[in-house]
Amino acid sequence: MNVKKIVVAILAVALSLMLALPVIAQAMVLDIPVTMWVNKSKIKVYEEPNEKSKSIAKLKGGTQILLEQVTDDGAWYATLVEDTKHGGQRLGWVMNADLIDTLPQSFCKHDWSAWEVEKEPTCTEKGYRYRFCTICGIRDEDDIKKLKGITHVYSTILLDDIRMSYSVPPLANK
After folding, report:
1. Running DSSP on this structure, what letter comes out for residue 88?
2. CA 137, CA 101: separation in Å to the nearest integer?
3. Which of 56, 60, 54, 22 is nearest to 41 (CA)?
4. Any idea which architecture 25-103 has in CATH?
């Protein structure tokens, strides 16, 4: 047999293996399903761990998914998605780059805690308050306006020939 034909045959086999590698790549089954969230406004779910394979579903941003498997290189995760064509669920593949391990704040439907006052307002300075989302943990802050309508009582006293002025603590007008 001609050496040139052998080299061409070996190259052809190597090339076909390289092209089929993403499909051949074995995925590890995760011991415990991992929860992740979609980190883009919309992503595709593929039939195989390959962007050139058929898209079988779409997921909206902020969707929580359970991951069942991961490719050896960690680039793709498998999750169960609704099979609207045949009913039930089927395994689909999503790209790791489209996922995040915490709920993206931009997709959260915030459930706020009660306001906590960090600094009480006075007649000369505004105050501050904050609260947290019990779902994603984001902190929301708000200013509290300066107090208005305060009556100050000023007095002058004479103590050892030294004149001093002072203010009685402010009382809110009723």
Report:
1. S
2. 14
3. 60
4. Roll (2.30)
